[in-house]
Amino acid sequence: MINISWVRDNFADSSFVPPLIYAVFGSSKDLAVGPVSIASLLLGSMLREKVSPTKEPLLFLQLAFTSTFIAGVLQASLGILRLGFIIDFLSKATLTGFMAGSAIIVSLQQLKSLLGIVHFTKKMGIIDVFSSVFHNTKEWSWQTILMGFCFLVFLLLARHISMKRPKLFWVSAGAPLVSVILSTLLVFVFKGQNHGISVIGKLEEGLNPLSWNMLRFQKKYLGLVLNTGLVTGIISLTEGIAVGRTFAALRDYQVDGNKEMIAIGTMNMVGSCTSCYITTGAFSRSAVNYNAGAKSAFSNIVMAITVMVTLLFLMPLFRYTPNVVLGSIIVTAVIGLIDVPTAYLIWKIDKFDFLVCLCAFFGVIFISVEDGLSIAVGISIFKILMQITRPKTVIMGNIPGTNIYRNLHHYEEAKVIPGFLILSIEAPINFANTTYLNDRISRYIEDYGFEEGMKKHSDLHFVVLDMTAVSAMDISGVAFIKDLKKAMDKRGLELVLVNPIGEVMEKLQRANKAHDFLAVDCLYLTVGEAIASLSSKIQPDTSSHV
């Protein structure tokens, strides 16, 4: 099973020191911090590909602490430099696919403990895992499988009850503890360790020592810890801030995103020096905090004191706890990350986002955690670039009996105004899209009249650009308007601008003072006002219409 040998020694410590740090620096009243399943298991899985936690336990711990330190530096730096927007590149679609893929990968890793396999692959790929499982069938233990199945059913049933009846949240919250206590008693009474059931073994009492001298930045492992720290740092930070904002919205207060990044980063940096691995805000713990009526971050201090008492006096009680139950708890914890309803909703709303979701999902399963995440983020950025370089432009028409102008393709009742080509640009105009906009507008002019059954191309007199949705414009955008005005003049057409706002209007005015390319009568506040004012300039030509 993934990293039980080091999780068991450092999980509790990670619930002791970091909460104390967060209570000082954090801004959320409800967030309860500590180890979370996805970040913890990703950290262990990624390191396990290169270093064995059983053969080289000290090195494994050193790399885990170093990765946590790097994650903390990254998180705190994002907050100090106010670069939290970088996290927004992890879209809902990306996170949905990534979490689902990670849940499956982590669950498959638990087959080692659920089946009682001794020799298990270090790789995370789904093909490697199944190959290892079926190549070691002789190591399967029926006692382990039976115990794992029973407790897995119990945990899933408890989870199902809490989901169906939210008031019974304590059922799923307490089920893991009940499982640990009951399974430990069973193994102790029936001496299960002598019948093929693997147990945790002896655990040292007391607080773990300082670990600042265990941080390793040697060239041989630098790439591994940087990669692991980056992935787990971003994922844990995203989860922590998302959880904090969720509960802040329920209680109608604001969470400072940058302050949260600094708090989470600081507690991971300090934690890495006190025998703790990656921690963040946990949804389940925070839900318990919320339902218990916690009013401030002081609840984290109470939790830390409770954990300290456990570390000092209660550790020997877990000596006979079977690893198979820990595997069952992990599977139950991560299975909730597979959000099928959200994936289906993404499919119904946006097919491209669903493609991003699938890429993250299959990338994690068949390639690697970091590659799957990178592919999904890359595709998301490509989508943004496409939207920037290919801004939406639509032809607008008048809704009869009103002064309202809307997209012709969205409103069947909208009608074209003869003599006018009314276009709406729904994006900032900058160096990345001016060429596309110029080509698009030229095509609209060439095609004018054919869709509406007009016979003469010369019916067009005015090209009206509704710039209400143009929120920004750079120097290339100003040059685009200037060149477009010249092109319209050569065609014998008049360019009209409607409602250029704020920064856009200021830049056009400054450019106009230097080159005088815009007349006062080509600027209007609304499309309706422009049409009403300019219609009188068009000479009726009944010969051009049927």
UniProtKB/TrEMBL annotation:
NCBIfam families: sulP (TIGR00815)
Residue ranges of domain STAS in the record: 410-534
Regions crossing the membrane: 58-78, 98-120, 140-162, 168-190, 221-242, 262-284, 296-318, 324-347, 354-382
Protein name: STAS domain-containing protein
Locations listed in the record: Membrane
Membrane topology: Multi-pass membrane protein
Keyword annotations of the record: Membrane, Transmembrane, Transmembrane helix, Transport
Keyword match ATP-binding: no
Database matches in Pfam families: STAS, Sulfate_transp
UniProt keyword annotation of 4Fe-4S present: no
Any GO CC annotation of this UniProt entry: membrane
Major subcellular location class: membrane
Biological process annotations from GO: transmembrane transport
